[in-house]
Amino acid sequence: MNTKRLVASLLACSALLTFAQPPQNWHHLSPEKNTWAGIATEEAYELLKGKTAQPVIVAVIDDGTDYLHEDLAGNIWVNEDEIPGNGLDDDKNGYIDDIHGWNFIGTVQYDNLELTRLYRSMRILYEHADPSRLSVEEKKKYDYYQEIRHAFEEKRDEERTNAAQMGVIVGFVKKVKASNNGIFDKKTLKAYVPDSDNDIRLQKRLLTLMKLGLLPEDFGDQVGEIEEEINASVNYHINLSYDSRHLVGDNYDDVQEKGYGNADVLGPNGRHGTHVAGIIGALRGNGIGIDGVAAPVRIMVLRVVPNGDERDKDVANALRYAADNGAKVVNMSFGKYWSLNKTIVDEAARYAASKDVLLVQGAGNDSRNLDLYPGFPNDTYEDGSVANHWLVVGASSWEKGPKRIANFSNYGKREVDLFAPGVAIYSTVKSSKYQNLDGTSMASPVAAGVAALIRAYFPDLSAPEVKQLLMASVVPVKGKVVVPGGAGKDAVSNLCASGGLLNARKAVELALAK
Q: Which residues does 203 contact at the CB level (< 8 Å), separation at least 6?
């Protein structure tokens, strides 16, 4: 379970969330053979028996990846033109000792939201401005500043309120654990004797959530993660006085600069990126852990995403690095709703297109209609044209019928291309461990894995052709589904451009028929 979604569900007590679990490999299963709405991975490989493939490099732009993981190490990209640890840029690409990729944010673990950065930069210019003395053009910027200020203050108040509420819940859970030898479950919660009216209310609330199946069994073990999220939100995400960039050491205003950061591609966390990498490229058939979607594949690790919002300069440089160093698929399981410098990301995306690189991106987890409220980065350039090498992926669920689309997933008939499994996805995490996570962050690498599979076996297909092939081979969903966020029901054809769910077997069938 994603910690941020768990926090949101506890605050909202949403009855739409469920913590029941399907088979660990459900996303690989066949909707026809197993009744689980997976992508039919094994059936796709059956069709490819006897055919040759060439390894495809997939760049994972994320918070870092444990390249020594037992189920990933054999599929990690190695820059063979670089000599490890000699402190030199042997291949003259601008990056020293970039053996497995590059870390564009150095030792940064936490950062602001982009909205915080945007408000801070504009406040310097317009906080004390007299609108009656501004030119028409400056007045437009001043009005935009007022919009930014209002959005920031609203977000700040929301984050502070959520942090305070979660702090109370965490404090209560700690008391229950302390009175029961560190154990928190239904039995200990029920037996706990509250010492205040507030604790009585919390006890009843959490017992109700457990009864409804909305509180995971290991919730007591997740308290540390929730506290970390509270700390990150208040002390970093919305903190105007915090700026992480001194830890990177670059000239942040120089958007053309490269070579900053370091070669530590795991970084201080890396759980998210390791999970994403495993979905794409965990070693298949080795009898360890899980099977990734794609083979043969090499994972290039690009660390860009902190606990907070990624920066446009870093995203742009990561895209250029991927394109220059042979990646044919890039997975981007990140996003935000404000952008300080969309232009440089657009330019990098166009550069990736010139190198025939397919970009695959998670749609986001806010039950949001991206047609109305777009996120960043996105496939619509500032001049209004649309990138044809960019696939946007929403999350589907293992649940049947009207719950087929994940209740948290962003959607959009124009902005989201298809849905892929993104709930209860079991994959690699740090230190050779494994975990279930959910989000469009998981759906995107499922699609990136299928894209890599197609590019490995059908190298003559271009990035735009692979995108169109994946969209043309989706499995339609019968009937109406619950629109994410609970906004009624609608056909999946009104929630994404292709109108269906990713299917590897059908994608291979279509590629073979070309």
A: 172, 189, 192, 194
Q: What span, in angstroms and rounded, lies between the C-alpha atoms of 491 and 478?
A: 8
Both tokens of 169, joined, read 């819940």
Identify residue 438 by its one-letter amino acid code.
D
User: Cβ contacts of residue 122 below 8 Å, gap of 6+?
Assistant: 141, 144, 145, 148, 149
Q: Measuring CA to CA, how many Å separate 478 from each of 26, 36, 121, 414?
A: 20, 15, 48, 20
pLDDT at position 314 over 50? yes
- Rounded CA-CA distance 207/191 in Å is 11
Reading the block at residue 405, the tokens are: 């689309």
Q: Please, what is the Cα angle at 229 between 227 and 233, to 5 degrees?
A: 120
The token duo for 453 is 């599979």
In terms of phi and psi (left: phi > 0; alpha: psi -120 to 50; beta: otherwise), the region of 445 is alpha
How far out from the chain centre does Cα 40 lie?
23
Using the predicted structure, report yes or no on whether residue 343 has a pLDDT greater than 90: yes
Find the mean pLDDT for residues 172-189. Answer: 94
Kindly state the helix (H) or strand (E) to which residue 412 belongs, with its residue range. Answer: none
The b-or-e profile of 300-312 (16+ CB within 10 A means b, else e) is bbbbbbbbbbbbb
Q: How far is CA 455 from CA 200, 349, 449, 459, in A?
A: 58, 19, 10, 5
- Domains, the chain, ranges and CATH? 23-112+250-513 (3.40.50.200), 115-237 (no CATH)
pLDDT digits (tens, 9 = 90+) for 370-423: 999 999 999 999 999 999 999 999 999 999 889 999 999 999 999 999 999 999
pLDDT over threshold 90, residue 211: no
217, pLDDT greater than 80: no
